Amino acid sequence: MAKNKQISSTSWEDYELMDAGGGKKLERWGKIITIRPEVNAYFRSGLPFEEWNNMAHLEFIVKKGQQGIWKNLKKDAPNTWNLHYEKLAFELKQTSYKHLGLFPEQRTNWDFIKKHLHRDDKFLNLFGYSGAASCMARYIGADTYHVDSSKTALNAAKANMELNKLLNIRWVFEDAAKFLAKEVQRGHQFHGIQMDPPAWGNGAKGEKWRLEDQIDDLMSNAARALSPNGFLIMNTYSPSVDLALINDLSSIYFSDRKKEVVELVMSTTTKKTLSFGNLLRVFPSTSEENH
Ligand SMILES: C[S@@+](CC[C@H](N)C(=O)[O-])C[C@H]1O[C@@H](n2cnc3c(N)ncnc32)[C@H](O)[C@@H]1O
Question: Closest by alpha carbon to 144, among 164, 124, 167, 130?
Fold first, then answer.
């Protein structure tokens, strides 16, 4: 099978993807080491699980569906702590889902935003959750809109804005696709749009939706809401939305734009490669990057 074109996010001082395999991954967040389930780690781990267990402070144990608990493997495991990325800090916390409120594979997108966004540009973060991308945009001085249909997720993003002593991110508690469609009707445009939709989700009123039903509208409306020199970042994790579909749709809606459609990956310290879904990036038309 031909290998997909890939873009790699890399670990940094405060975060390390240490190892993966056997359906789990081993990560270091500051001084705290965790083990959590990872569906894409279908290969053998670099280190034996006994070594993981000796190192880790916390392990996420699935109880029902997507939910579960963090089990303390050491006495000094905190409930919340902060993690730094460059000049920004983010609050980590043991959630009842298998994450800690930050998605380190997004690092390559934070860097992309830093490179292509400028003070006073308008930036739209759809499905924004932790607000890491919103904090990066606001730190640069962009007029930042952050949309999420979960109050808990919005509160986590607000906590991160406050932790970074930033002000005036525009919080929108709404279904992302509906908000984007309304922005198109209002004739509003953004210099940067990021969207990181889950494979399936709920709107603000609990309505169910699946990405495969929404992706065409999301992409066509994003194309209309993007300023002529703007950029788009779109991550997808849904098995029903493969690289071929993203390629087809992006060549319809961004036919005249520089773009890349790639698999997002991260390498472990033990040299395993873990996939984090697919990534479409449409570049600002003035960008000099090679594609
Ligand atoms: C994969 S997470 C995004 C993570 C984000 N990129 C980050 O770095 O923190 C998906 C987010 O989409 C939100 N969500 C799910 N369905 C939604 C919908 N219909 N409209 C708006 N947000 C939605 C969830 O509440 C969740 O916060």
Answer: 124
Tokens representing residue 63 in the block: 């109880």
Measure 147 CA to ligand 1 centroid, in angstroms. 8
Q: Give pLDDT tens digits for 125-167.
A: 999 999 999 999 999 999 999 999 999 999 999 999 999 999 9
Domains of the chain: 8-86 (2.60.40.1180), 106-282 (3.40.50.150)
Cα distances (angstroms) measured from residue 118 to each of 3, 24, 138, 290: 35, 38, 10, 21
Looking from the CA of residue 235, the nearest atom of ligand 1 is 6
Ligand 1 mutation target, pool 95, 124, 135, 148, most atoms within 8 A of CB: 148
- Residue owning tokens 């409120």: 101
Cα torsion 173, 151, 195, 203: sign? negative
Q: How confident is the model at residue 3 (pLDDT cuts 50, 70, 90)?
A: confident
**N-terminal to C-terminal alpha carbon distance within the chain:** 22
Question: CA nearest 139: which of 106, 116, 114?
Answer: 114
Q: Judge whether 10 and 266 are in contact, CB under 8 Å.
A: yes
For ligand 1, the distance from its centroid to the CA atom of residue 127, given in whole angstroms, is 3
Smallest Cα–Cα separation from 72: which of 90, 91, 97, 94?
94
d(CA 64, CA 210): 21
- Which residue, among 115, 36, 31, has the nearest Cα to 81 in the 3D structure? 31
Ligand 1 mean position, distance from CA 102 (Å): 12
- C-alpha 235/C-alpha 278 separation (Å) is 6
**What residues flank ligand 1, with Cβ below 6 Å?**
103, 106, 127, 129-130, 132, 147-150, 153, 175-176, 196, 198, 201-203, 209
